[in-house]
Amino acid sequence: MPLHQLLTKQSFISGVLWLWLLVIFTAGVEAAPRGAGAAVQVRIATVDRKEIPHFTVVTGTVQAAEQAAIAAKISGTVVTMPVQLGSRVKKGDLLAKIHAEELTARLHQAEATLAQTRRILKREQTLLQKHATTPESAKTAAEQTAIAQAGYDEARAMAGYTRITAPFAGVVARKLLTSGDLTTPGAVLLHLENDQSLQIEVMISERLLHTIHPGDELTVLVETIPLTTTGIVIEIAPAVDPRSRSAVIKLAVPSNTALRSGQLSRVLVPDHEKYSLFVPKSALIQSGQMETVFVVADGQARLRIVRSGTQDDAMVEILAGLTRGEKVVTTSSSRLVDGQAVQVQP
């Protein structure tokens, strides 16, 4: 091999070796502990144990606080039904009219009978004043008039059943019959709901009943809207269903135009107490998937791997890696390495 090629090759190998040594030296300098150097000024916080709320999520149903199944009290044909599904009505508005000829005829008969007994009573009273009849006869006429009056009142009430009106202001939630349909006593014509006053009905396990009291405020979630609101406990069933081992509670919720009767809701019910450790968020150092903190002990900062949980604007829950009462660094963490001498600022 020519001499100049040999020299060039040797120079290249020497350069690579020197570069490799430089990298090793530089890395060694960066990895060297600085504990022997000047102490770093830091602030610390104590690992504290706090109670955190723990909830069980139960499902509930949105329903109107005021609702009614409007049913017929007589037999007949529905001749008028001026409402539709979703119609909004006021108290006293006409919902349906039923045609029943026999009730009309009975009312006319009762009117005639009452008029007749009144004439007889008036005549008997006039004759009694003239001593032309006996007191017993006048008394009988009065009793017959009272009976006729009762019959007339009954017939008029029955005739009034042909008109069905709204018992309260609300909206027609279901409509089961239409004009021309035949109805019977007890047959439901429609369902009326007051959608301005809604509540949540929830079945609560007997295990959780002791945690709930009238007036308690519980968080309610309606995911389909979506909506997060607060419900106030207004009713708690006094007995537990032996089959489901649960009881009904009802919560009043604020009026919301997006809420509809029958919607699925979720209620957060307080469960057993839970305690956990907390440190300031500034103490937690995140490097990829690894979470660490610096713990101050004997004037040095010791790196500790931890596992965090829930957090808010100021504090973070520590699930593993720390014990209560330990001191963690909250400032100057970027200037520290494991074993670094520190001086705690007041």
Automatic annotation (TrEMBL):
InterPro entries in alphabetical order: BSH_CzcB-like, RND_pump_MFP, YknX-like_C
Protein name from the UniProt record: Efflux RND transporter periplasmic adaptor subunit
Protein family membership: Belongs to the membrane fusion protein (MFP) (TC 8.A.1) family.
One cellular component (GO) term of this entry: efflux pump complex
GO molecular function, one term: efflux transmembrane transporter activity
Superkingdom of the source species: Bacteria
Domain YknX-like C-terminal permuted SH3-like positions: 278-344
Protein source organism: Desulfobulbus oligotrophicus
Domain CzcB-like barrel-sandwich hybrid span(s) in chain numbering: 67-185
PANTHER family: HLYD FAMILY OF SECRETION PROTEINS, MULTIDRUG RESISTANCE PROTEIN MDTA
Gene3D superfamilies: 2.40.30.170, 2.40.420.20, 2.40.50.100, Helix hairpin bin (1.10.287.470)
